[in-house]
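Write out the bound-state structure for zinc ion.
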Amino acid sequence: MSRRITIFDTTLRDGEQSPGASMTVEQKIEMAEALDRLGVDRIEAGFPVSSPVQFDAVKRIGAAVKRATVVGLARCKKIDIDAVRDSLADCPNKMVHVFIATSPLHMKHKLRMSEDEVLASITEHVGYAKAQGFDLVEFSPEDASRSEWTFMVKALKTAVAAGANTLNIPDTVGYAMPDEFGERMAALKKEIPELGDTVLLSAHCHNDLGVAVANSLAAIRAGADQVEVTLNGIGERAGNAALEEVVMSLRVRKDLWDVETGIETEYLYPTSKLLQNITGLVTPRNKPIFGDNVFSHESGIHQHGVLKHRETYEIMDPIHIGRNRETLVMGRHSGKHALKEKLEQYNIVLQDQQMNSLYEKFIAIADKKKEVYDEDLFTLVSGVLGDLPTGWRLESFQTWTGNQVIPSATVKMLKGEDGCLGTQTGDGPIDAVFKSIDQCTGIQGRLTEYVIQAVGSGKDAQGQVKLQVDFDGVIADGKASSTDIIEASALAYINALNRREMMSENVFRPDQP
Ligand code: KIV
Ligand code: ZN
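---
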């Protein structure tokens, strides 16, 4: 029988730490449910001590997820472990992930702790986690690849003695090379007899040198039971090992590994799309597995080959990752039921209220466009999930522009029951709208990035605006779409404004007592 690899997904924790990937609590819950249906075994939901919003997200993910084990991250601090315990109090399948750095660099400059102090802290905090009722306790020696070997082994043995039953080896700064990482994992199996018996061995690889997936595969080859990955490879700096690349390598080259995962690969592409639309972090065209170019063939020789026999130039069947399915084009006559079914094909299941709001937006757009394509739907879904009930909303706007007039705009906005009005001139109609919004809210923003692209095809395609605004030092991203590009710009700017508020609630306070 094939060896079963545990897929530990950290998209919502390490992934969300990457710039531009922050999500609302609603969006995180939607993603967690989609990851659960995708078949990941463990979902790291966040770092609950870091802010009330993170705490709430972990708690609500714990309640929403049906199959997977939900994990909360904690430093070697009781307050962190308490936050994981409290946020997951009602979650039936839960786990705590405790970490402390073991490399000389981190111990000297960040922790300012001696080796003995670090070992004592592991004993105290892994033991404390166990005493809080967690059957599953994972321990990570942060910056493992740059840790001194003998000391790291000591730290891992200390964690096992204190009750850890998963030992995770983080290549925190993406420093390791595949052969070296594999050898280290194999050596650990020899050094720590509990590995392969009562304790799981896990790899957590970052992609600074572009080898996170190779390192994860080397770890599996060396006997690792678990890999920690993120969808689309999002994560700190250059990101984490990409879930889809590891899983499809294992599937396509089953002859090499003889291992299996619980991932339902047909959900991979739709789940990736959901994440891309929620975060606005779009994968490059040549991204393995998900990129737009991955199943298109430009050269005549390749096209000829694929037409004759697909496998000449394709090692994967797109159907196996959920691409190329028969698509049902939606239009103004499509009912709510058809819309719901369509979304389910894409691993998107919305709550009733979200579904109603989506249907309203869908009908509005279907009135403007003849056909609503999947890309339009993804954009609408991310809009619905991005709605912040307490945030600013655009009530109406007007612009006056031309080549002989000074462009001006008037904007009416609402926050809860309160309304405001702004009227300004600008360098163009979009600039005038942004200035009117600033006047209305009293919050000054400076546009630092602005990109517009068409979603779907044809003259009635939607314009999708992605922008970044500097609100007095707080940088927030915004995204929105509409068939009217000035409206899309206004909505994206308001989206950034609302994210700014969400970010200030979501700040990590490392010095919390
Ligand atoms: O990369 C890392 O070291 C981490 C730890 C918290 C495991 O993400
Ligand atoms: Zn990490």
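---
The chain has three domains: 3-279, 300-386, 392-503.
The pocket of zinc ion (ligand 2) is lined by residues 14, 170, 172, 204, 206, 236 (CB under 6 Å).
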